[in-house]
Write a structure and sequence with these properties.
There is one protein chain. The protein has about 250 residues and is α/β, with parallel strands linked by helices. It has one domain: Rossmann fold, CATH 3.40.50.720. It is about 50% helix and about 15% strand. The strands form two sheets. The protein has a four-stranded parallel β-sheet with strand order 3-4-5-6. The protein has a two-stranded parallel ribbon with strand order 1-2. The mean pLDDT is about 90. It comes from Zopfia rhizophila CBS 207.26. Pfam families: adh_short (PF00106).
Length: about 250
């Protein structure tokens, strides 16, 4: 396969593409801002025109935003919603028609999160986007079934992986309300998170096996889902999970 590596930063895309090439693979880096639907349309046209088909689409772009809802500046709110939700939605909208026309077996993976089944104060902006991605992916799965399309849909739910998402610089423009939580989460992920290579291997295996539910740490997913089911069944008031209270110094 040729991997089309897209990022809002060309240097980051080039670095990933170089790693793939040095390992013997084929890759092409491109600059794309997924918060702009027109750029995703352009990307789809470019890739299909140059390579003929797209067998695997991974809607992975996402940012973490922390702070109290009313303290997060408007530009950061808009960026979070546009990248995390609209990037996934319009990535699918731009690519699926051409996938359907090809008649080939294809795969789509949308990055949700373990957060799609939980709630957390000061993480509201991010959490709501992941709930949205999860429900979107479920509906998309059913739509493609109705069309008898040879396209598999996976909702990818990483648990705790050693990514850059909680680095301090990632929080630029989000306000000050989430600083302590960002620092605590960054330290916890660094100390206890799963290695990225191991997590990605599990994710790719699940996608290849056409699983809708694709996670990295099954026990964490099961615990979170069970807590959510209990909350919905009992119709209790929302509450902070005991396992997360120390992160907010409660």
């Amino acid at each position: 396969m040729t991997v089309i590596v897209t990022d809002v930063s060309l240097s980051r895309a080039e670095a990933v593409a170089k790693e793939i090439q040095e390992a013997g693979g084929n890759a092409e880096p491109l600059t794309i801002d997924v918060s702009k639907p027109a750029e995703l349309d352009t990307l789809a046209s470019y890739v299909f025109d140059k390579y003929g088909s797209v067998r695997l689409l991974v809607n992975n772009a996402g940012i973490e935003t922390l702070g109290y809802t009313w303290e997060i500046p408007l530009p950061r709110w808009e960026a979070t919603l546009n990248i995390n939700i609209h990037g996934v939605v319009h990535g699918c909208r731009a690519f699926i028609p051409r996938m359907l026309d090809s008649g080939e077996e294809c795969w789509i993976a949308n990055l949700a999160s373990i957060g799609a089944f939980s709630v957390m104060p000061t993480q509201t902006a991010y959490i709501m986007t992941k709930h949205a991605v999860q429900s979107f992916s479920e509906c998309l799965f059913l739509e493609l079934k109705l069309k008898n399309a040879p396209i598999s849909v996976s909702s990818v739910m990483p648990g705790m992986l050693k990514t850059r998402i909680f680095e301090a610089k990632a929080g630029e423009g989000e306000g000050s309300g989430g600083e302590a939580y960002r620092k605590a989460m960054h330290e916890m992920m660094s100390n206890y998170g799963m290695n990225i290579d191991e997590g990605c291997s599990k994710i790719m295996r699940g996608i290849a096996e056409k699983k809708f539910w694709v996670d990295t740490q099954a026990e964490m997913t099961n615990d979170t889902v069970e807590q959510r089911v209990k909350f919905l069944r009992e119709r209790r008031d929302p509450e902070i999970a005991e396992s997360a209270r120390h992160l907010l110094d409660l």
